[in-house]
Design goal:
Sufe protein. Chain: A; two-stranded antiparallel sheet; mainly alpha
Length: 144
């Protein structure tokens, strides 16, 4: 599995292909949980209100670094499934130019059926996380 895909489109395509191999949603949820377990360790000192993503039912923290040419994100959650969602989001959006992050729609969410299978609170949380991430990228790119 190529973590550093060459483009956001390629990363989203790879995610779609991986989920296409999985049968039902119990397998897909298990895969999400497994992806979440593979997230790098998150610094405890970053689990502060300043980095918290509001709008998520579970606790989520998102920390940006880098600049407009290449933004990196670290994130974690206290929920196993949400951690898996974070892993997917980071594959698509982390280590990319800020302008590309801002311009990229999260098509994989619909492609793999997440939109239909997430609870409304998780779906709202995913939307909030994407908005926060894109907000950081827009600020780095000097956009409003």
């Amino acid at each position: 599995m190529n973590i550093a895909a060459s483009s956001t489109d390629q990363a989203q395509q790879e995610i779609a292909e991986e989920f296409a191999f999985l049968g039902d949603w119990s397998e897909r949820y298990q895969y999400l949980i497994d992806l979440g377990r593979q997230l790098p360790p998150f610094p405890e000192e970053c689990k502060t209100e300043a980095w918290r993503v509001h709008g998520c039912q579970s606790m989520v923290w998102l920390v940006p670094s880098g600049d407009a040419s290449c933004m990196h994100f670290e994130a974690t959650s206290d929920s196993a499934i949400v951690s898996g969602l974070i892993a997917l989001v980071l594959r698509v959006y982390s280590d990319r130019p800020a302008a590309e992050i801002v311009a990229t729609e999260p098509g994989f969410v619909g492609t793999i059926g997440l939109a239909k299978h997430l609870s409304p609170t998780r779906s709202n949380g995913l939307t909030a996380m994407l908005a926060k991430l894109k907000g950081y990228a827009a600020a780095a790119a000097g956009q409003k």
